[in-house]
Amino acid sequence: MERAMMLRRRAAVLALAVGLTWGCAGTRWAPRSAVSLAQEESWLEAGEYLKVLESLPLQRIDRIPRRLRTRAYTLLGRSQERLGRYDQALLTLQFAEGLFPKNLEILCDLAGILHRVGLDDRARPYYLRALKIHPNNAVSNVGVAEIYQKQGLLAKAQLHFEKAMLEEGWGRDAGLLRSYSEVLAERGDLAGAMKAIHSAMATRSTAEDRIVLARIQRRLGAGEDGYGQLDLAVVEAPERQDFRLQKSLWLLEDGRDEEALAVVAPVLAQDPSDGVGLWVRGSVFLRRGDIARARADFAAGAESHRDLFAAAVCRSMLEQLTSRP
How confident is the model at residue 304 (pLDDT cuts 50, 70, 90)? Predict the structure, then answer.
């Protein structure tokens, strides 16, 4: 009795927090035996997320048959997330997880949102709980593998990617194969990495695939092939300035200073405070002996707030130049 009252209070608080409509007085719901979520499923599939929200206020979810409630919560949470209402989606799914702590779909959806908004330390426990229920669950294995990859725990990342690929169809998932290729390359298995990225590109090639392939080719000594893939990536995704910056860094490393300047020029024209771009241009000036212009670029780069690593490198170079007699 006491627990039931507590859950009802939590439902009321949640409804107020996410601003859901409770329905007008006198609303008549369909008989419990006739309830179906087919309409809400079709709206979610069609991208009509507001209709899902309007159709699934918490009052209705509380009244539909228990066998449908977990799916109703996931439909509501997914619609909220796709509308960009991340706080609402988290509240919905955290509430649902409290009611159904062993439901795989709710655990995966909750972990997924936390992972996508960068709260990996909170996401990982939910993924691991899901894997205790279903050790080969591909969604959870991929999610936790991506977290381990980001944290530099590459052996664990590889293990979970490989477990995910055991699930039917996942061994052909291009995004998974690309991430797996990156992990293998970072671990020094360049042959395995090349095989994985070619498998990812077998049915379609994206700019991100080309970048991974280019990096592997460069490490294998096929530098010009790597530059070719980078150029294709820039053509396919012209808005991705990080691809141009990658090429400028390689050109700088290879001593091709004039080409590096030409590549980085449009990046700095669009964003004069780009830390990596300022590092590249400042380094070319330094090689030319133009200390004043190099110092100016490193000083500006040291103030970059978007790329803290580039800022730290620029700051280090600035300190070295300042300490010179």
Answer: confident
Supply the DSSP symbol for 171: G
CATH 1.25.40 fits 256-325, yes or no: yes
Q: Do the domains 256-325 and 101-204 match in fold?
A: yes
Confidence band for 59, pLDDT divided at 50, 70 and 90: confident
Q: How far is CA 28 from the centre of its chain?
A: 42
Instruction: Check residue 295 and give left, alpha or beta (phi > 0: left; psi -120 to 50: alpha).
Output: alpha
pTM above 0.90, yes or no: no
Dihedral sign, CA of 88, 102, 114, 239?
negative
Q: How far apart are CA 79 and CA 53, in angstroms?
A: 7
Distance CA 314, CA 297 (A): 8
pLDDT tens, 117-140?
Answer: 999 999 999 999 999 999 999 999
Give the domain ranges of the chain.
Answer: 1-19+38-99, 101-204, 256-325
* CATH class entry, domain 101-204: mainly alpha
Which residue shows structure tokens 């997330």? Answer: 81
